[in-house]
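Schema walkthrough. Field components (list of strings):
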Amino acid sequence: MMYFSRLKTSLVLGVCLLGLIFAVPNLFAAPSAWVPWRAIHLGLDLRGGSYLLLEVDMAAVIKERLDSLADSARQGLRRAGVARFVVTPQAAQNRMVVRIEDTSKQDVALKTLQELGTTVGNQTVARPDLEFESTPGQIVVTLSAPALVDRARGAVQQSIEIVRRRIDETGVVDPLINAQGDSRIVVQLPGVEDPKRIKDLLGKTARMTFRLTDETANVSNPVPPPGVDFLAMEGGPGGKIAVRRRVEVDGANLTDARAGQSPQTGEWVVNFTFDSIGTRRFAEVSRNNVGHPFAIVLDDKVISAPNIREAITAGRGQISGSFTARSATDLAVLLRAGALPAPLTVVEERSVGPELGADAIRAGAIALAVGFVLVMVYMAVFYGLFGWFANVALVANLVLMVAILSLLEATLTLPGMAGMLLTLGMAVDANILINERIREEAHNGRTPLNAMETGFRRAFSTIVDSNATTFLSHVMLFIFGSGPVRGFAVTITVGIITTMFTATMLARMLMVQWYGRNRPAALPV
Amino acid sequence: MFFRPLLRIVPDHTKINFMNGRHAGLIVSAVLSIASIILFITPGLHYGIDFSGGIIMEVRTPAPADFTKIRAGLDAQGVKEPGVQRFGEDTSVLIRLPVQPTEAATQIIVGKVRAAFEQAQPGSKVMRTDAVGASVSDELKTNGFLALAVSLAMILVYIWFRFEWQFAVGAVVTLILDVTKAIGFLALTRFEFDLVMVGAILTIIGYSTNDKVVVYDRMRENLRKYKTMPLRELIDLSINETLNRTLGTSMTVFLAALPLALFGGATLSGFAWVMLFGIVVGTSSSIFIAAPILLFLGENRLRRDMAPVAAKAG
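Field assembly_structure (string):
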């Protein structure tokens, strides 16, 4: 039991050496891109930066789905020859109600509506996305639960893509963008102290549409005529414009958008280019409506509504409004990146300046150093030589912890630093249990070797039991926690694993080596 | 110091009759825990924005913060119900604002606070801004308490598997008493209760369990070794035998957490003080609470349950 084979010795030393190697990348920058260089990331609370938690407006996603479903239903029913029907989307209940006056057409209508449905999920478990409930004179079409989940997931994925494109355009280095839960997106922006501009960029859906106006409508009427919206002018005073609902060309058909200055007036404009579909449609619409105003609408606000002077066939155009250099650039960024499927709202925001992070690192490092020294002195005073063995194991423990955290590319947060310190305090507990047990066994008259062996064996189950509970509770903290506190949970759980190794294997090996060399008659306990 | 130990915490063969003090220990603990529960109800915990939602801004002023000017500045800007307090150093100010209805409103009020500082003490710098919406804070709170509850349940199950049920009950009852005291301490000291504090409490739970496992392990061993010794004597013997361990392991963690409380910075000091408090409570409860509970649960039952286990262990 107390005999350490050459193989075992070299294994233990090998692990420590590997630990040292993997811990090194934290001290230096990578020498070249080709060397694998995994290091611990500093959390935003230590390096400074912004953390944004965005929520995708799922109600809007569902409403949009129902609206488009209602449109298709109306067209389908008309084509199927069902006369006199009313389609009402009810977003709050995730459903659409279709009333049919002529009940003899019920079956035809149901069949038409059923054709609108598709399936969601993969090949093996495909589920219909619509559920139908037919009573005479009325058909209720409900979005199924898997369809809702699928929609939500799709919306989050799509939003992440757009958010990434928008942030990339701003030149932020190393942004981290991830989904969280069913409807949220985490955005981490290292080095961004004031995320106002990013929030402004992300706060817009940026759905741009080109629509015709209704010049006959009276905008002072309280209710717009059917098929027309009264929309406000962006940045302008209260005046409204009657814009037709029908979208002639969609912003999705843009291939490029750049801010620039108009050579004639010197004011800021956004130049854009359409793809082939957009070019064709734009040409057609402009040819048929020369002399009429054409509204450029962004998120339900009219940016500008210029008169069409001639047919525009080249697929290029210019938006002028009351732009500044900044707002023109931002609009160009938004148009290039594309529209979000639904509005995003910031539900949590944390930003830390770099100075505060540096202060935190300094304070944490001082505490870590002082705590380390105090624990080592304590072990030396109360346990002598065996205490020093524990101290060597403690240093190895720190190195191994750093190595594992580097390999995991874990994030070190301020609470994480506290976790490291506490782990070091708890790591020597295992050595205390072992040393006390050895001492006891020696006092009971065992020979030194026998006492050491029994001490390790008997203390081991206690060490496992006591560490297991701490391990379990921090796994729970990792699962249920979020943000910096997860860093704390990670360091403690990693620390427990390394402690099991250093306190029982490394410290034991040191003792055995020492015993083999000196063969003392009594142990220094 | 380099070869032989210089000091021992308690000498060998210490024989303190801890069980004499069992009633006193339990009563003191019960009173403290009840007081803690009362403190928890009123005035209650000082929830950090993780759990209450709202806005926190940490501002560093170029000269020692002039709170009269800052308050006047905030008032002039029309910032309603600001919480203004010193944070660690005297050039550091913490502003706390309630949850705003919309993102735009949050933006505006943060701008107003900046303006107020610019007016009161030009050159002030916003070091940190945290804004947590109501829906998020509700979730964080639920998850925080869930983490605590699930951890306690898992520890109960674990100890149940590894020991006899009396030990599990003893450990969990003691842990609950420990946790209530930690919460009472939080309510009394007005440290902010946030996710990091949940981490602290979980660490206290884990740590306190370690201590109990050490003592229980020894009791279980002694129950097999001295089959006829009265339980009361046996418990005292076990506590005395493990006293150096119980106190030693606590000392090292205490020493590790102490510098954190003293130099760890304003953000971590609350966490560290709660840890230190928890270590003291956890250690004393191992001796004065966890052990007596076993005595109350009864010798006969414990011995009867032990017999087959001992036989199996051979």
